[in-house]
Amino acid sequence: MGTLYRTRAQLRDIGALAAATLAVGASFGAITIAYGLPAWVPVVMSVLIFAGGSQFLAVGLLAAGNPVAAVLAGLLLNARHLPFGLAVADVLGTRWRDRLAGAHIMTDETVAFALAESSPQARRRIYWLVGATLFVVWNTGVVLGVLLGGATGDPDALGLDAAFPAGLIALILPSLRDRDTRLVAIAGAAVAVLFTPVLPAGLPVMCALLGLLVLFRPTRRPPTRPAPTAVSAPAKQP
């Protein structure tokens, strides 16, 4: 009975995640059209790269005319997949075909769902289930978003320019529960805003990486209390 309940809970969570992914994918496709990029760009990017938040950032930088910054920002954002790959290496199997396919559908969610399982068989099953589901749903949403953006004529009239920051905020909100991550995000945002008026488009986003410096701030140590001194008993008088 417990296994059945857990399976139903997993399917419910995966369904909710898929619905959110569909919506974010649609906003990505629509915002790409709003930026004036060709319709094939978001579709090809989603199939070949499948990088979620990195794609939002990349199309913004591409639209600003800074493709080099788009590539560098994507590489930096996806560098977290290196430790992810080590964590789920046993899940992907030993064949190169499986490893390549598994690495392509690797996301934060697939790794989180897989590592929540106790047995290797369960981890492998849930990894491929979540990864394949998100890949199909994301690309479906992107195509819908492209069609929506092309059909409206003026995507900005629907407020699609707000989909880019809203999508990114939705992607990073779960990570902001951690205090250090929250401090880095606030510091990076402040640096980006500070440099926006003086640097070309795309570079302030790269400068936001300076927010990582707050991790090296000196930590205050709690004051140490002096050790209690032993009080010797008075000597007895003869």
Automatic annotation (TrEMBL):
KW Transmembrane helix (keyword) present: yes
Keywords associated with the record: Cell membrane, Membrane, Transmembrane, Transmembrane helix, Transport
Pfam families: AzlC
Subcellular location: Cell membrane
Membrane topology: Multi-pass membrane protein
Transmembrane segments: 14-36, 56-77, 126-151, 157-176, 183-216
Main location, first listed in the record: membrane
Similarity-based family: Belongs to the AzlC family.
PANTHER family: INNER MEMBRANE PROTEIN YGAZ (PTHR34979)
Protein name listed in UniProt: Branched-chain amino acid ABC transporter permease
Organism expressing this protein natively: Actinoplanes campanulatus
